[in-house]
Amino acid sequence: MGSSKFSLVLFFIIFVALVGGIFFYASRKTQKNATTNTLSQTASPTPAPALPQGTSDSQLNQDSTQIDNSMNSLNSDTTTIDQGLNDQQTNLQ
Amino acid sequence: MITVGVLTGILLAPMALAQTASPTVTKTQRLAQLEQDRITNLKNRADTEITRRITSLSSLVTRLGNMKHLTAAQIASFTNEVNAEISNLTTLKTKIDADTDLTTLKADVKSIVSSYRVYALFLPQINILAAADRALTIVAEFSALETKLQTRIQEVQAAGKDVTSLQTTLTDMQSKITDATNQAQSIISMVTPLTPDGYPGNRTTLQSARGAFKTIYADFVAARKDAKTIMQALMNKSEETSPTPSLTPAPTK
Q1: Tens digits of residue pLDDT in A53-82
Q2: Where exactly are the structural domains of chain A?
Q3: Global pTM?
Q4: Which of the residues A75, A88, A92 would you substitute to probe the B interface, choosing the one with the greatest number of B C-beta atoms within 10 Å?
Q5: Distance from CA of A64 to the nearest CA of B (A)
């Protein structure tokens, strides 16, 4: 009878330890998943480093076209300067 | 009979006198008409000249308003001077239009001639400054392009490509832009202090400034050529880097 009582107590202790272990393991796993989720949520939206703005081939072509237009305007400006330098007033005699 | 003859003579005498006086009045009227024609003609020419100057000076005010690289004080100073000249010419035009006497009109017209040096200086002076201002705008445009090209060259270099030639061309482009900048700023420094009092003596300075634009334009043409060379090389290099699209589908593993 004493041996049987001892076995029952031992079984109960092992059972409690097993259940406790399972709960502990389960709670650790949940915590780990939560941390992973948090990390992935934080890391996910980080955008890739942006490329410098306006350096595409088409943008460079646009910039070049703008320069060509400005250079043409400068040519017109110099023609206007020449007209000013060669100006003759109306004959008022 | 004698009495009748005398009476007839008395009656006809005024008519004969009238016939003699008539050509004298016509000549006076003709002289007056001639003077009036001269006045009209001179007024028309004076108006044409004044209107021509006011139109040109007004366009200079517009150009001054569009300048970006002169100081606000410089722009304000020139604008005030030009507007003052426009005001003088407008007042003069009103006076000339009201003139009825040829002598007074001639004196007024003479003042158009004597004020010509103001116009003759402002016209090329402000147009030169406007062109120098535009040159500095082009310099800014080139600088922006140069920065972008530098970025692209660095990207190509990071990809392991040889960029020595590209960098040399970019350095040449930078030196052309720097020279154009110096030339434009030198023109502004040279031309800004000129005043109508120094005209026509300061005409040589204006001509010298005009000559400098040839150098500026040559710099821009060279810089533009450099930019084109770099852009073409960058496009070629990016084609080398990009994988060639396969015409046959890859075998399924």
Answers
A1: 689 999 999 999 999 999 999 999 999 999
A2: 2-42+55-80
A3: 0.74
A4: A92
A5: 8
